[in-house]
């Protein structure tokens, strides 16, 4: 990719916004604004009895309470699996014996460079959640098949959750 005129327009707590011009093949130079994000992790906590723990939390960007997987932002230098284990414990109180990668996704590649690493967590043990001061999270535990059905009919709209649930389905059968 050939770029010119890169400038950071905004530096935020979570994201930066960069303006650049990109050469698109023979079509010339075109302006783009890119949201720079450190990336994150989402975890499918699958219990031995076939249930999954989901969380419900307010997402101010869409002004809705969304049903999602436990997830969070990578800290500088943090490995994705370590982030997933940390977020799973903080948000749900769960710890896992096994963390298996389900790959990664780019949820909004048209405007953002965010990459979300997806994991299947099994061998779960319940502990005490320790949510961030700004989080108000409710956990729900439902059959895995029900979570898949909610994703299929659009009752779960969070893209990382939908992708991870269906990738986990392929993994566990």
What's this model, at a glance?
By secondary structure, the chain is α+β, with helices and mostly antiparallel strands.
User: Which outline best applies?
Assistant: elongated
Q: Number of DSSP helices?
A: 3
How far the N terminus sits from the C terminus, by CA atoms, comes to 40 Å
Mean pLDDT: 95
Range of helix content: 10-25%
Rg: 18 Å
Could you describe the largest sheet, including whether it forms a barrel?
4 strands, mixed
Pick out the low-confidence regions.
none
Strand content: over 45%
Major sheet strand order: 7-4-9-8
Secondary-structure-derived class: alpha+beta
Notes on the protein architecture:
By secondary structure, the protein is α+β, with helices and mostly antiparallel strands. It contains 3 helices and 10 strands. The protein has helices spanning 80-92, 144-153, 159-172, and strands at 2-11, 16-23, 29-36, 40-45, 51-59, 64-68, 71-73, 94-105, 116-126, 138-143. Strands 7-4-9-8 form a 4-stranded mixed β-sheet. A 3-stranded antiparallel β-sheet has the order 1-2-3, with no helix packed on it. A hairpin with a 4-residue loop joins β5 (51-59) and β6 (64-68). The longest helix has 14 residues, at 159-172. The mean pLDDT is 95.
């Amino acid at each position: 990719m050939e770029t010119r005129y890169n400038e950071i327009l905004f530096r935020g707590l979570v994201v930066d916004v960069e303006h650049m011009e990109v050469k698109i093949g023979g079509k010339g130079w075109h302006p783009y604004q890119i949201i720079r994000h450190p990336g994150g992790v989402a975890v499918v906590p699958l219990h031995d009895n076939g249930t999954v723990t989901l969380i419900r939390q307010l997402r101010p960007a869409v002004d809705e309470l969304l049903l999602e997987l436990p997830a969070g932002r990578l800290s500088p230098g943090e490995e994705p699996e370590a982030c997933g284990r940390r977020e799973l414990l903080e948000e749900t109180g769960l710890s896992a014996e096994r963390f298996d990668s389900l790959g990664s996704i780019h949820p909004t590649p048209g405007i953002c460079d965010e990459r979300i690493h997806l994991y299947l967590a099994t061998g779960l043990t319940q502990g005490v959640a320790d949510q961030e001061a700004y989080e108000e999270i409710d956990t729900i535990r439902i059959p895995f098949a029900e979570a898949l059905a909610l994703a299929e009919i659009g009752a779960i709209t969070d893209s990382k959750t939908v992708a991870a649930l269906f990738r986990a389905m392929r993994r566990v059968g």
